[in-house]
Design a protein that fits this description.
Elements: E1 2-4, H1 5-16, E2 37-38, E3 48-53, E4 57-62, E5 67-71, E6 85-90, E7 97-102, E8 106-111, E9 116-120, E10 131-136, E11 145-149, E12 152-156, E13 162-166, E14 181-186, E15 193-198, E16 202-207, E17 212-216, E18 235-240, E19 247-252, E20 256-261, E21 266-275, E22 278-287, E23 294-299, E24 303-308, E25 313-318, E26 325-331, E27 338-343, E28 347-352, E29 357-361, E30 376-381
Antiparallel strand pairs: 1-22, 2-6, 3-4, 4-5, 5-6, 7-8, 8-9, 9-10, 11-12, 12-13, 13-14, 15-16, 16-17, 17-18, 19-20, 20-21, 21-22, 23-24, 24-25, 25-26, 27-28, 28-29, 29-30
């Protein structure tokens, strides 16, 4: 199947921004959170430990357990104050952070004490309120990792069990229903999982033996049997992705899934970029050409980036900041010494070994965190 990349990009943008589209109902809100405090310049006692990027905002978890976020706050995904934050501000009302995740217009953290808290508009609907203050997610205690995209989140708990909550219109919660939930429920039939990833309307997990399981929207689940299922029918419970038995990590775009393999290669399936302004659907995983020694993969709305063993970063799909359609990975100039990477919808950040953070891509809401609002093809430094 071949389709226009321009049409795909417009569809992705609409999906990422669906909760804040014109004409959407104005949700009720809870009491305002306390005003944020300004983030200090990083030091040895306040170094960045991890990054989490959403649609138009980003967050950094520091080694001291605090969380600092920047960018759009139109749905209170940062604080209770409705204003844009072009530089990081500290999020109040949460305990020391173990893990963080950001979605279309919401944020979640797993606290070191065991609770999981979320806030923002990610869980808002006609019947559910918008949360300006962090609330405890029932059933999500003691999660070790979090992944969030769109309007739902998933986490990895004890004994390798996966728990998901939020929107479930495409079965992305994996509980055999299409009912939205504010409380976390275990994904049907999964245990012994070592990695989990939430996509726009799908989710995926890697088992201890290297197998990949996926559920939700049929685009990202294209490699999961039965392959004769009618297009557009969601997968409500996990199904195994055929052709991969050595995965260690998983990442989902809006329409594509990718797995990092034990040998450092990456294989993808779904709607694959296949050249200038076209994509092709593959129901079997295809190894990405020109990419080896990969240590981490992350995915945005329509792009994937890989951190390589030499601490450089390469991206393909609709590359953030460049707005070019790449079927094969291109190295991001200006990024070296990277220790970890994170993906937003149309922007990207890298955490360097020296503790600095570089970001590039779209910046209309200040999501690059440099105090400016301009699309950047070259990385800019996060300014504290």
């Amino acid at each position: 199947m071949r389709a226009s990349a321009a049409a795909l990009l417009l569809a992705a943008a609409a999906a990422w921004g669906c909760a804040s589209s014109p004409g959407s109902p104005e949700p009720t809100t809870h009491a305002l959170a306390a005003p944020p405090t300004a983030a200090a310049r990083p030091s040895t006692s306040r170094r960045v430990a991890a990054l989490a990027l959403g649609f138009e905002h980003g967050c950094a978890a520091l080694a001291d357990g605090s969380l600092h976020c920047w960018g759009s706050n139109r749905w209170h995904q940062i604080t209770g104050e409705l204003q844009r934050y072009p530089r990081p501000v500290r999020v109040e009302g949460i305990g020391p952070v173990l893990a963080a995740a950001a979605g279309t217009n919401g944020t979640c953290v797993a606290e070191r004490g065991g609770d999981v808290r979320c806030w923002g508009g990610a869980f808002a609907s006609r019947t559910r309120p918008q949360y300006e203050r962090p609330f405890v997610v029932a059933g999500a205690a003691k999660l070790r990792t979090l992944s969030m995209r769109g309007q739902h989140a998933c986490g990895l708990g004890e004994e390798g069990r996966v728990f998901c909550w939020g929107d479930n219109d495409e079965g992305q919660l994996g509980d055999a229903t299409q009912e939205d939930r504010d409380d976390a429920r275990p994904v049907t039939g999964l245990s012994g999982v070592v990695a989990v990833s939430a996509g726009m309307r799908s989710s995926a997990a890697v088992g201890a033996a290297g197998e990949v399981w996926i559920w939700g929207d049929d685009h990202a689940a294209a490699a999961a049997p039965p392959t004769d299922s009618p297009k557009g029918i969601p997968t409500l419970v996990p199904r195994r992705v055929e052709g991969i038995d050595d995965a260690v990590e998983i990442a989902l775009t809006n329409t594509m899934g990718c797995a990092r393999k034990r040998d450092g290669r990456v294989a993808c399936w779904g709607d694959l970029p296949a050249g200038r302004l076209v994509y092709e659907r593959s129901t079997s995983p295809v190894v990405v050409e020109g990419l080896a020694d990969v240590r981490q993969i992350v995915a945005g709305a329509q792009h994937v980036c890989a951190l390589r063993a030499d601490a450089t970063v390469a991206c393909w799909g609709i590359v953030p900041g460049w707005h070019v359609w790449r079927a094969t990975p291109m190295q991001i100039e200006g990024v070296s010494g990277a220790a970890a990477i994170a993906a937003g919808s149309f922007h990207q950040c890298a955490l360097l070994r020296d503790g600095e953070v570089l970001c590039w891509g779209d910046d209309g809401e200040g999501q690059l965190g440099d105090g400016e609002r301009a699309v950047m093809s070259r990385p800019v430094q996060l300014r504290w």
